[in-house]
Amino acid sequence: MKNKIYKNKLLIIFSFLTLASCSEYIELENQNQIAQDGFYRDEASLNLGLTGAYSTLRNPIAYEWMLSEIRSDNTFMNLVGTTQAQNLQIYSNDIFEAPSYDSFIENYWGSTYQSIRSINGLMTGMNVTYNAASGTIDYGMLDYTIADATKKRIAGEASFMRAYHYFNLVRLYGGVFLVDKVLTSEEALKVNRASEDDIYKFVIADLKNAIANCISSTYSATAATDRGKVTTWAAKSLLAKVYLTLGQKSDALPLLSDVIANSGYSLLTGTSGYANVFASTNEMNAEMIFAVRFKAGGLGYGSSLSNLFATNTSSIASQTKLAQPAGTRGSYNNPTEEFYKSFGTSDIRRDYNIKVYKPTASSLPETWTYWAAKHNISTTVQNDSELDWPVLRYSDVLLMYCEAVGVNNATTLAYLNQVHVRAGLTALTATNVATQAAYESAVANERRWEFALENQRWFDLLRFKKTLTTVNAKAIMSNHFAEMQPFYSQYDGAYTTAQLQAKVADPKFDLLPIPNVEIVTNTTNPITQNPGY
């Protein structure tokens, strides 16, 4: 687990760019101390800053699962009797008890705003600004020469990354600090929380800018060196998800239809199709619309997830065939028994995503443990996995289309079955989704199985209250706590089912706390905390 990081005012500390090359966002020469002021003077410097912005997407991934997947019914903190402070922090978030001073919540917030600052520095260098009144991204004059299309492409890619961050922030924390330019320390102290509506308006403006200006060629026509960059199709897919989150299904639908019909992205099929989506030897394939790129090789650009999720017990690794990456292994983010059993027995996604450890050949199911396998890979250096982090996949677009239409018809059933049958399951029929509740359950379940351990389940559950209204997040989590009560009874406090289920009604269920450091260090501008903290 990464060392505990203490931060002062998180909006102002990131005064450098992390720079990288285009294909994997890696620059082998250390240029981490390049100042932003006066740096952007031509196309080469702008492209260098853009790859630096891509590179900063990596850091939040180490913490995102602690704030999303583990809060859902998919995974839990399976470390009974732990006394380590960092473990107890994850455990507290698992049961909606996170304190406002949780260092991991602060780390996610801080690393995200650090990335936003590098993006804002790039935007400032191009004189690209956000017009809050009109809800648009505006382009000003420059005192250096660059092709207009090139400038707008770079700004479009940066807009997507900024929108991606703010979309995550607003879903996790509610109204946050809307920062659209590089701030001085004095300016930062005057920034207060924006409303959720204002954050979403900003996100939509950025994504519309990305749609208008990013690479728009089909997947097959996109040069290999450009795969991994933001495209119009990625921006349309993310904007559709934003609209679904806002309950604007009619706005999401044409975007999704366009991606399906015209982007050239597709599902990887065959018995190994699902596994091939995530293979380190098949990166940025036809199903991966956008991913955060990682690069192994001891360069400092690898992913830590394989280490965080891998078992630290050799007998478990031996039986399950889970890789044991070099260095410390965390045994975090274990799938729940209920999640494992929710899969059909012939669903190839179950055994790809989850491995089962049985202490003895005749051991009872109550003694079995379940382990995250999707992000598991061998490494020779600690925290150096090659595996990219999927943000948007083509299967996500198909299932969002089903969600946006909201009813069973020939098209939605066909799209649902593309994903369902690829997993090795028998095609659903109209009889299987004959009622509205059955249809909505089928879509929700397919998303749960398809995006296992990709940090989508928690956001899905919260969104369904506006799109698939028969799928009730609080009822699902209440049932989750009832099933998990025997486990939680082992901790100090020995929670009863009633005590666990009461947490679903707590305000902490809906939002994480604004990090306490943001509140206590600002003596100029009082910052309001979220309810319950």
Q: For this structure, what is the CATH class of the domain at 9-214 and 495-533?
A: Mainly Alpha
**Principal-axis shape:** globular
Strand arrangement within the widest β-sheet reads 1-5
**Percent strand:** 5-15%
Subcellular location: Cell outer membrane
Protein name: RagB/SusD family nutrient uptake outer membrane protein
Domain RagB/SusD: 351-533
Pfam family, one: SusD-like_3
Give a verbal description of the structure.
There is one protein chain. The protein is mainly alpha-helical and about 525 residues long. Among the domains are: about 10-215 and about 495-533, Serine Threonine Protein Phosphatase 5, Tetratricopeptide repeat, CATH 1.25.40; about 305-385, no CATH class. The protein has helices at about 45-55, 60-65, 85-95, 105-125, 150-175, 185-190, 195-215, 230-245, 250-260, 275-280, 305-310, 315-320, 335-340, 350-355, 395-405, 410-420, 435-450, 455-465, 475-490, 495-500, 515-520, and strands at about 75, 130, 135-140, 290, 335, 355, 370, 390-395. The strands form four sheets. The protein has a two-stranded antiparallel sheet with strand order 1-5. A hairpin with a 4-residue loop joins β2 (about 130) and β3. α5 packs antiparallel against α7 (about 195-215) and α8 runs parallel beside α15. It is globular and about 75 Å long. Mean pLDDT is about 90; it is low at about 1-35.
SSE layout and pairing:
Layout: H1 43-55, H2 61-67, E1 75-76, H3 85-94, H4 103-125, E2 128-131, E3 136-139, H5 148-173, H6 185-189, H7 196-213, H8 232-245, H9 249-262, H10 273-278, E4 288-292, H11 305-309, H12 314-320, E5 334-335, H13 337-342, H14 348-353, E6 354-357, E7 369-372, E8 389-393, H15 394-405, H16 410-422, H17 436-450, H18 457-467, H19 473-488, H20 497-502, H21 516-520
Antiparallel strand pairs: 1-5, 2-3, 4-8, 6-7
Signal peptide: 1-20
Main location: membrane
Subcellular location: Cell outer membrane
